[in-house]
């Protein structure tokens, strides 16, 4: 299986009041095509900073990040913006959407901005509607963003993240603002997308969410301290998967 993301000696340093804060320290890992990877760690460990650095949302201080063979740390801002638009999808804990647009218009907006394909506007809208049907929210296509539930809005954010058929979907606490039922629904959709071939890298504090992933990285003080691989196959009950992951996390001081 091809490597879609390769991170080598990644460092990120912030200078605050003339003091250096080394948030990431020589981080190394890779993500294979079709993988579903979770990043966990205590608050302030650098997990969200890691996600932003490897996706080009934040500039690295040192090291290399190879995305589909291209070192994004060497790209100019316009090249990086085009790469994020066309080849990456993003889901955040806070469900940012344009208030003056309908749910469907928000979903297809990245497709309208992209020059990745020669599709017509009508074709892009049709694709947005197909994604909404797939995630069972087509009935809210014409609603404003304040007229839907949190779970529906996050599923709409997943649709938007997938509209340009990204190589990797990056998610920062995608279930963090949801209740347990909505969280389960959103995770079901992410797992389905992954099973269909979408590569997913997510940050989460929820072991129940991470247990659905094929691999977990545990980060502390800007260093990866451990790596966990979920048991192969779907025959193991979800509760057993979660228990095994929790035991591993406890061994690392979670």
How far is the first residue's CA from the last residue's CA? Answer: 31 Å
Strand/helix succession: EEEHEEHEHHHEHEHEEH
How many helices? The count is 8
Strand content: 25-35%
What's the gyration radius in Å? Answer: 18 Å
Largest sheet: 6 strands, mixed
* Helix percentage range: 25-40%
| C-alpha geometry | globular
Widest β-sheet, arrangement of strands: 6-7-8-3-9-10
Number of separate strands: 10
Q: What is the mean predicted local confidence, pLDDT?
A: 94
Q: How would you classify the helix and strand content by structural class?
A: alpha/beta
Notes on the protein architecture:
The chain is an alpha/beta fold and 254 residues long. The protein is 36% helix and 27% strand. The protein has helices at 47-54, 77-87, 103-113, 121-134, 150-162, 180-195, 207-210, 238-251, and strands spanning 3-16, 19-32, 36-40, 62-67, 70-71, 88-92, 168-172, 199-203, 215-220, 223-229. The strands form two sheets. It has a six-stranded mixed beta sheet with strand order 6-7-8-3-9-10, sandwiched between helices. It has a four-stranded antiparallel beta sheet with strand order 2-1-4-5, covered by helices on one side. Helix 3 (103-113) crosses helix 4, helix 3 runs parallel beside helix 5 and helix 5 packs parallel to helix 6 (180-195). The longest helix has 16 residues, at 180-195. The chain starts with a strand and ends with a helix. The mean pLDDT is 94.
Question: Which features does this protein show?
Answer:
about 250 residues, alpha/beta, 8 helices, 10 strands, globular
